[in-house]
Amino acid sequence: MDQRIGAGVWRENAACRGSFGSLFYPPQKGEKRSDRKSREERAKWICARCQVRLDCLDEALASNESTGIWGGLNELERRGLGFEGSTSYGFDKESFIK
Ligand code: SF4
Description:
Elements lengths: L20 H4 L8 H15 L5 H10 L12 H7 L17
Bound molecules: iron/sulfur cluster (SF4).
The site of iron/sulfur cluster has 14 residues, from helix 2 and helix 3.
């Protein structure tokens, strides 16, 4: 997705590259809860098939991404992992995103 181009090589293999950007971030004007749920489900469906999902999640956690779907998780779900700003998890993070 355009907002993520510019850093890691993993981005070249991102399943969201192209025209899916609007699925991964909320619209600036806001959205209804039901619209958000639908949008996020579609984004997560793409993430579930993405070969660089863990790299994406790593970057979001390390950079404290405050919005959007990264690695198949929204910002609230990432906060729930409790490891913002660190890539030293001390657990098998793959188990959190399956
Ligand atoms: S995990 Fe999702 S947001 Fe991250 S690169 Fe893959 S498709 Fe894009």
